[in-house]
């Protein structure tokens, strides 16, 4: 997505790509009617956001616009989640996201160091 999308736009787009309506997403996430529409002006609570992300097979980071990649973090790591207890899976995914963010920041810092070294030479 090249232009900036808000949360509601991203949910709508993913739903459309998956052949689902917002009503379908709300039912699957056990949300009230038109709950997702309210996200245009009111931020959802964390639990509802995570549930919708799971229903859409994406990350909360994507829905919130922190990344333009809708692929959930566990797909990148090809993690077999069957050995992770159900109640710990969201925490585990959050830890993987932190690891990804740390690695990305570290790579940016290394790139910056190399750029500075090239400028000095």
From TrEMBL:
Signal sequence, start to end: none
Taxonomic superkingdom: Bacteria
Gene Ontology molecular function, alphabetical: DNA binding
Listed Gene3D superfamilies: lambda repressor-like DNA-binding domains (1.10.260.40)
Entry protein name: Transcriptional regulator
Native species: Leuconostoc lactis
């Amino acid at each position: 997505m090249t232009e900036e999308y808000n949360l509601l736009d991203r949910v709508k787009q993913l739903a459309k790509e998956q052949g689902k309506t917002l009503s379908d997403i709300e039912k699957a996430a056990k949300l009230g009617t038109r709950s997702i529409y309210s996200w245009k002006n009111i931020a959802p609570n964390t639990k509802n956001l995570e549930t919708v992300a799971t229903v859409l097979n994406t990350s909360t980071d994507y829905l919130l616009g922190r990344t333009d990649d809708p692929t959930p973090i566990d797909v990148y790591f090809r993690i077999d989640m069957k050995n992770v207890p159900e109640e710990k899976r969201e925490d585990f995914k959050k830890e993987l996201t932190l690891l990804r963010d740390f690695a990305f920041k570290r790579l940016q810092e290394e790139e910056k160091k190399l750029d500075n070294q090239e400028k000095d030479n």
